[in-house]
Every structure is written in structure tokens, then in C-alpha cells.
Amino acid sequence: MPTPRRVPDAPAETCQQRFRRRWGHLRDPHVRALAWLLDAPDLLDPAAPQWAGRIASIGTPLPQGTQSWLVALDLAPQALHDYLALKPFTRLGRYAERLMAFYFEAQGVLRGHGVQVRSDTNGTNETIGEFDFLLQQGGDLVHWEFATKFYLLEPSGDGQEADYFVGPNLADTLGAKMHKIFSRQLMLAQHPAAQRYLPQPVAHAQALLKGWLFYHDSKDHAVEALGVAGGHCRGFWCELREAGQLDMQLAIILPRLSWLAPARVETAQALDRQALQAVLAEHFAGDSMPLLVALLEAEEGEAVEVRRGFIVPDDWRTRAAQRRPPIG
């Protein structure tokens, strides 16, 4: 087992500050989401030895021309809107994939997106798997699995295992996700049934992960996590009973399809502390699903995100510890 790598304390510039500095001029919410996907820090460290070179990265700086392309797209976003409208989205992951597909297609490198592999052995037509992206890189065909993930550090242990990063709905962990990607999804091109779906052999397969990790308090920023990038986007989580202590000016509840880029809304849409508390109380009276809240500050008639965090029910920590897979 590899030696745990220490994740440095949170960088001086938050992801919100970085995005505002680099992309604060963008207005269209879908273009902002795409800019965040392309330019946000990676969730995992591509250089960490345990990933064995299987973590992909868009890279920094962005490919030449990308910034001006995004600016032009923001001024005339109808092509992106039409592309997204081909399918209704109920899942954040599918929405993010479609945004990335638009970018890869515009770059002229997309050879396949969402390519389902089926086996016709014995006439079963069984689904074996799906290629998220088949991309042309020079003369090579590469397979990228893509995911946008949001995990909360469940602090019952020492934080040295990826399974301590738990999804807000308790349905999965960072460790379980990476095991699935590496043991199944990145192996798809080697399956005999996949060959007829490939225009040429896959040169290599990698995973591209974007997302945010959330911590209960600041000392968790120094958690020893396996392969997590030091500069990843960070937020907080707190229990409902702690939410009244938040240091805030304004806030907004983020719907799921708005979880990617830092929020920017009209000030009239924002909630003050009292209104936020009322919304939280009403929600948790009948629902245990955590809510993602963006804390905002007013700026020339708008409110922009400065921090974000999940508000979880008061028993979330106990349930997370019980449902997390055993460590070891």
C-alpha cells in the first residue's frame, strides 16, 4: 500500500477567487460551467504514484485559443444552448459530460461520446459498459472516463483512506468510485465486445475527475488523503444545528445542475440569514438530503459566491460512519 501523501493547507486563493479573477466576465451560466470544468484544479493529482499515470488532465494553461473561444461563446451562446437542449438533464454528471462533449467537438478531437458496448453473445444484447469519451490525440485514440464528484470528509477516522470521503447522499465514496473506474471502466477497451465499436485500438485509458471536497472544519484541510490534489476546490459542511453560526452576508441554495461553477445571481434572488434558516428548516422537516449552499457577497447589483458548503441533517455524521465501507 502506498504511503499516504499529505495534502497541503488550502491555497491562499480560493477556487471562487480564482474563478472570479479568470472568468468573472462570463455571464451565461452554461458557459461559466464549461469554463469551470476546463480550468478548475484537478480533483486528483495526476502525478501521484498510486494512479500509475491513469489520471487525465486538461492541463494548465488551457490549450491555445480556449480563453478567447469561451469569451466568444459567452457573447453568442445559442450553439451551446442548442447542443444541451438535445437531451433533458436530470443528472449533473450527464450535464457535465455534454458540456465537455461540446468542447471536444469544437476542438475537433471527439471520436465518440457515450458509446455503449453491447455483447450479442447468445442473443442477450447485454450492456457491457460505456465509453465516456473517445478522443483523437495525434495519431492515437484515447479513452477518457469523466466524472464530477462532490465528497464530504467524514471525520470518524484518521482521513488516510479515500473511503472517508463520502457522497452527500451516502451512496458512494471516493475510494469506491476510483475502484470502479480502475477495475472496470478503464478496462472496457480490452473487452472483446468493444472492438467493433472502436475506429482504431485505444492507445491508453485515463480518468478525468473534477469536483469539490468538503470539510467540517479548517484543520481538515491538512488531511492525509491518497492521491488527492493539493489545490483541489474546497468547501465546508455543517450540521443543520450549526448553520445559524455561518459567517454570511447572503446565500442561495444551489440546484444540482448549478453545482459546478461558483454562483453569480441577481441580488434579489439571494437569501438573508433569516430567510436561509426558514428554507433549511422547511426542507429538513421532511427530507434528509443535504443541501448545497453558496455564501454570497453583494457586488454592483449582483451577488457572487465567496464560499460554499453542504448543510446536512444533524444525524448525518452518524449515518455516514455506519454506511462507509469498512477500512482495511
Features:
single chain, 328 residues, alpha/beta, ten-stranded mixed β-sheet, 8 helices, 25% helix, disordered N terminus
Tell me, briefly, the overall form.
Answer: globular
Write the H/E string, N to C.
Answer: HHHHHEEEEHEEEEHEEH
Helix content: 25-40%
Q: How many domains make up the coordinates?
A: 1
**Backbone structural class:** alpha/beta
Can you describe this structure?
With 328 residues, the chain is of the alpha/beta class. It has one domain. Helices cover 25% and strands 26% of the residues. Strands 1, 2, 3, 4, 5, 6, 7, 8, 9 and 10 form a ten-stranded mixed sheet that branches. The radius of gyration is 20 Å and the shape is globular. The model is unreliable at 1-8 (pLDDT under 50).
Summarize the structure.
The chain is an alpha/beta fold and 328 residues long. The protein is 25% helix and 26% strand.
SSE layout:
Blueprint: H1 15-23, H2 29-39, H3 66-75, H4 78-84, H5 92-106, E1 110-119, E2 126-137, E3 140-153, E4 165-166, H6 174-183, E5 202-215, E6 233-239, E7 250-253, E8 264-266, H7 273-284, E9 291-299, E10 302-312, H8 316-323
Parallel strand pairs: 3-5, 5-6, 6-10
Antiparallel strand pairs: 1-2, 2-3, 3-4, 7-9, 8-10, 9-10
